[in-house]
# Entry
Amino acid sequence: MSEGSRGSVSTAALLTLLAAAATASGATQWLQVVALGVVEGLTEFLPVSSTGHLIVAADAMRFQGSIGGTFEIFIQLGAILAVVAFYLRDLLAQAAAVLGRGGERADTAGARRFWLDVLI
# Structure
């Protein structure tokens, strides 16, 4: 079994276990929220769709209705904010370089070119 398929199998097994635990024990919404948070946390940095896993896990746990959609939005926002917080120093350095306030001239030109390419 390859390294990538082991990760997929273990993720699928985790989703199945979380869904079974949440539905078999009549778990409260808090247990479902924790389980979905774990799914999001484990799959966010993997080369798989964390949103897809979140939707599948929520459906398996019957975590639906108006709170389900709102929860998915906020948990995705939390993941995005965590990534921005983690890379904040690098993002601020890039902003300084684009504004011409950072490092060497070549670094500033490279940063400006990169962000111009991103915007286009």
